[in-house]
């Protein structure tokens, strides 16, 4: 794999493609210009095309073949922001892609993190170590991403819940009801934070932040030196409150990506 953005790409690409390479090699392909993975699930969360290089002469034809490969499933299409020429928008629009969002990659030096210095309310946070706990995790997102259950169940069946698994899943509970979830992916001495989702009925109450900060502490305690995440950002600076929040607590902006979707779904 090509890691244009160093450790950040290493975390992101290994997270995207660790499971397909380990469990389903027949539907994982790595070429000079593209990396593809297709799953049995009808969701662009799990069907992914990563663009390493853009050849202007062959790009449109390459995308047509990619659509054919994934058909009839939706998929997400990721680009490096710095390598995205304007003419691609016209081609992608013509092929019925829709721009999902701009992504910004951010990192945190966990050597500088100390949960004890923060004043946060204590809530029950569960690390998933059984099928029953996984069901509780999935209950939070079933309504919004029905395909997730089959995908995560397959992962747990094949990999189990041991500490050797680079994936770790968590949920935060209120009155014994899971309402906010997230996952960590460990690779070498780094860690990525993914799959962050809070049930709409419990948003803007600080629960996601509580889980978020607790997982930074967990990552540090389990040997990670840096934590990476991606978040959406807008070209309009006044709409990037979440990016500014991350910077305020110590995250640094590392890189940018552009994500398109072909007839997709996802939260």
Overview of the structural elements:
The protein is of the alpha+beta class and 267 residues long. The protein has two domains: 7-103, no CATH class; 109-255, Gcn5-related N-acetyltransferase (GNAT) (Aminopeptidase). It is built from seven helices and eleven strands. The protein has helices at residues 7-23, 59-70, 87-94, 131-139, 148-159, 207-221, 241-248; strands at residues 28-30, 34-37, 48-51, 75-80, 97-109, 124-127, 167-174, 177-187, 190-198, 226-233, 252-262. An eleven-stranded mixed sheet has the order 1-2-3-4-11-5-10-9-8-7-6, sandwiched between helices. Strand 7 and strand 8 (177-187) form a beta hairpin. Helix 4 (131-139) runs antiparallel to helix 5. The radius of gyration is 19 Å and the shape is globular. The model has no long low-confidence stretch (mean pLDDT 87). It comes from Silvanigrella paludirubra. This is GNAT family N-acetyltransferase. One of its GO terms (molecular function) is acyltransferase activity, transferring groups other than amino-acyl groups. Residues 120-267 form the N-acetyltransferase domain. Keywords: Transferase.
